[in-house]
C-alpha cells in the first residue's frame, strides 16, 4: 500500500514537471497572412514599397527642416516630431514583417517580442501626443495669432515635446514586466508579423485581469484623451473661423488645417477601425483584423509625408529646390 502511494505521488510529480515545461515556451511564432503562404513573396512587394516610401519620405522632411533655417518655425518643428515618430514606427515593425514575408523567419524570442511591443506602443502614444501638439499649434495660430510667437517659443515647444515623450514611455514601461511574469503555452502563435500587447497577453496561461485593466487605462488616458482634446481644439477653431466676415480669409484659415486633419483622420480612423474589427469581426474569418492591423501601423507613416509635402507649398518648394541642386 505504501509502495503504491509512493508510485502515485511520483507520477503526479512527473506530470506536474511536464506541465511546467509545456507552459514555459521561450519563443513566439509570428504569422504573416494566414492562408496566403504561397504568395508571401508577392505580398512582400507592397509592404517593402510602403516601408521605402515611409522611411525616405520622413527622412527627406527631417533633412529639409533641419537644413533650412526658414522652416525653424513651430508648425515645422512639430512636423519634424511627427516624422521622427513615423520613422520609429516603421523601423520597429520592418525587421520582423519583412523577415516573415521574405525569409519565412517566424520565431521571435520573448525578450525581443517584449522590446518590439514596447517601442510600437510607446511610439503610437507619442504620435497621438504630437498630433495633439499640432492641433494646439493650429488653435493658437487661428484663435490667437497676435500671441502666436510669444506662446509657442522654442523652449516651450521643447518642454511640451519632452513631457509627451516621457508620458508615452512611462505608460508603456510596465507592460513588458507585466507580460514577463506570465507563463506561455508551447504553441504561442501570433496572428501578425509583429508583437502587440493585446495579442501577447491573450497567449498567457495565467490570469490577465491586471494587464487588461492597465491596458484599458493607458489607452483612455492617452489616445482617447488626446482625441477629445483635438476635437475640442477644432471646435474652437471652427467657432473662430465662422466669425470671420470674409470668405477668403475663412477659407485661408481652414486650409492651413487640412494637412493636420488628414494626419488625424489617418491615425485615429485606422486605430478605431482596428479596435472595432477586433471586437466584432467573425472569429472564423480573421483576415480583416490582420489587414487592419497592417493598415494601422503602415499607412499613416507612409501617407503623412506625402500629405504634408503636397499641401504645404512652402515645404514642397524647398524639397523640389533641394533635389534640383
From TrEMBL:
Pfam families: 7tm_4. Keywords: Cell membrane, G-protein coupled receptor, Membrane, Olfaction, Receptor, Sensory transduction, Transducer, Transmembrane, Transmembrane helix. SUPFAM superfamilies: Family A G protein-coupled receptor-like. It is found in: Cell membrane; Membrane. It is a multi-pass membrane protein. One of its GO terms (biological process) is cellular response to lipid. CDD domains: 7tmA_OR51-like. GO terms for molecular function: G protein-coupled receptor activity; olfactory receptor activity. Residues 57-308 form the G-protein coupled receptors family 1 profile domain. The keyword Transmembrane applies. One of its GO terms (cellular component) is plasma membrane. The chain crosses the membrane at residues 39-65, 77-103, 115-140, 161-179, 213-237, 258-281, 287-308. The keyword Ribosomal protein does not apply. InterPro entries: GPCR_Rhodpsn, GPCR_Rhodpsn_7TM, Olfact_rcpt, OR51/52/56-like. Belongs to the G-protein coupled receptor 1 family. This is Olfactory receptor. It comes from Chelydra serpentina.
Amino acid at each position: 500500500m505504501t509502495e503504491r502511494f509512493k508510485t502515485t505521488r511520483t507520477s503526479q510529480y512527473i506530470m506536474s514537471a511536464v506541465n511546467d515545461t509545456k507552459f514555459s515556451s521561450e519563443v513566439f511564432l509570428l504569422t504573416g497572412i494566414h492562408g496566403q503562404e504561397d504568395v508571401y513573396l508577392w505580398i512582400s512587394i507592397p509592404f517593402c514599397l510602403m516601408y521605402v516610401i515611409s522611411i525616405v519620405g520622413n527622412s527627406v522632411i527631417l533633412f529639409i527642416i533641419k537644413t533650412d533655417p526658414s522652416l525653424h518655425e513651430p508648425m515645422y518643428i512639430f512636423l519634424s516630431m511627427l516624422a521622427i515618430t513615423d520613422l520609429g514606427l516603421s523601423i520597429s515593425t520592418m525587421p520582423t514583417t519583412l523577415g516573415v514575408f521574405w525569409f519565412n523567419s517566424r520565431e521571435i524570442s520573448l525578450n525581443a517580442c517584449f522590446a518590439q511591443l514596447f517601442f510600437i506602443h510607446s511610439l503610437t502614444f507619442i504620435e497621438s501626443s504630437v498630433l495633439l501638439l499640432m492641433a494646439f499649434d493650429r488653435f493658437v495660430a487661428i484663435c490667437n495669432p497676435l500671441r502666436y510667437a510669444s506662446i509657442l517659443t522654442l523652449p516651450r515647444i521643447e518642454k511640451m515635446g519632452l513631457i509627451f515623450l516621457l508620458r508615452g514611455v512611462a505608460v508603456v514601461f510596465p507592460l513588458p514586466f507585466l507580460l514577463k511574469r506570465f507563463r506561455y503555452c508551447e504553441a504561442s502563435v501570433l496572428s501578425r508579423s509583429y508583437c502587440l500587447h493585446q495579442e501577447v497577453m491573450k497567449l498567457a496561461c495565467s490570469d490577465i485581469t491586471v494587464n487588461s485593466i492597465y491596458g484599458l487605462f493607458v489607452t483612455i488616458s492617452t489616445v482617447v484623451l488626446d482625441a477629445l482634446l483635438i476635437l475640442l481644439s477644432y471646435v474652437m477653431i471652427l467657432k473662430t473661423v465662422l466669425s470671420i466676415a470674409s470668405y477668403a480669409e475663412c477659407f485661408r484659415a481652414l486650409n492651413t488645417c487640412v494637412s493636420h486633419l488628414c494626419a488625424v483622420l489617418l491615425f485615429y480612423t485606422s486605430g478605431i477601425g482596428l479596435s472595432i474589427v477586433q471586437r466584432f469581426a467573425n472569429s472564423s474569418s480573421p483576415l480583416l483584423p490582420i489587414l487592419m492591423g497592417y493598415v494601422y501601423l503602415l499607412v499613416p507613416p507612409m501617407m503623412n509625408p506625402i500629405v504634408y509635402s503636397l499641401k504645404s507649398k512652402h515645404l514642397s518648394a524647398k524639397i523640389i529646390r533641394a533635389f534640383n541642386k
